[in-house]
């Protein structure tokens, strides 16, 4: 069983998948940094200094009056959702561009198939019939 697992784990597809996951995780961190530190501050500046990461709709405020029974705030954090949505769009567009480039490189020319003997014979018969008056 150990030998079978080793053969499975050392196949090219599994190793390629592992490399893809690691590169994808690193790319995700780059996109997160791009959105959080470059795009969202620019959007915040254009909207009058609004920081979307902190935007939330408080459903129930925190209650710290009784230290023994602290109640945490219940809120819908739509600003974080907007940041995540922008990150998704950037990653999806980047993947689209990569797939498009790979498809362009691997696009094959259509294969021209030579006509079979039957088709050649039928073509010849057709041409002979056209010549008759």
Overview of this structure, please?
This protein has 133 residues and is mainly alpha-helical. The protein is built from four helices and two strands, in the order ααββαα. It has helices spanning 2-9, 12-46, 78-106, 117-131; strands at 57-60, 74-76. It starts with a helix and ends with a helix.
Radius of gyration: 31 Å
Indicate the proportion of strand residues.
5-15%
Model regions low in confidence, pLDDT < 50 over at least 5 residues: none
Topology as a string of helices (H) and strands (E): HHEEHH
The number of helices is: 4
How many strands?
Answer: 2
Q: What's the mean pLDDT score?
A: 83
The end-to-end distance, rounded to whole angstroms, is 79 Å
Strand order of the largest sheet: 1-2
Helical residues, percent? 55-70%
The chain-level structural class is mainly alpha
Label the overall shape.
elongated
Major sheet summary line: 2 strands, antiparallel
